[in-house]
Amino acid sequence: MNQAIRQKAIVKPGGIIEIQSPELPPGALAEVIVILETSPVKKTSLTSLIGIASGSFATPQEADEFISRERDNWSY
Predict the structure, then answer these.
(1) Partner residues linked to 16 by β-bridges
(2) How far apart are CA 14 and CA 34, in angstroms?
(3) Cα 27 from chain centroid (whole Å)
(4) Which residue of 7, 12, 25, 42 shows the fewest CB atoms closer than 10 Å?
(5) Closest CA to 21 of 4, 37, 33
(6) Contact 72, 65 (CB under 8 A)
(7) What is the per-residue pLDDT across 10-37, written as a single tens digit (0 to 9) for each?
(8) Three-class SS of residue 16?
């Protein structure tokens, strides 16, 4: 049966991780899996995205002004 040891470690410069445990016998073969903890993702409300993308309008008035300018450029 496999034995598992769970520890937290801080990654040192150069990507080095060091673990120590009296349960680890010298010369034993061990498989190491590293799972990085991530910072919580800051959630952005969808309404905060309104008007910031290219080609979009922050207000209905801006959209109306754009449409008016485009209509003025039409040739009949």
Answers:
(1) 12
(2) 15
(3) 39
(4) 42
(5) 4
(6) no
(7) 999 999 999 999 999 999 999 999 999 8
(8) strand
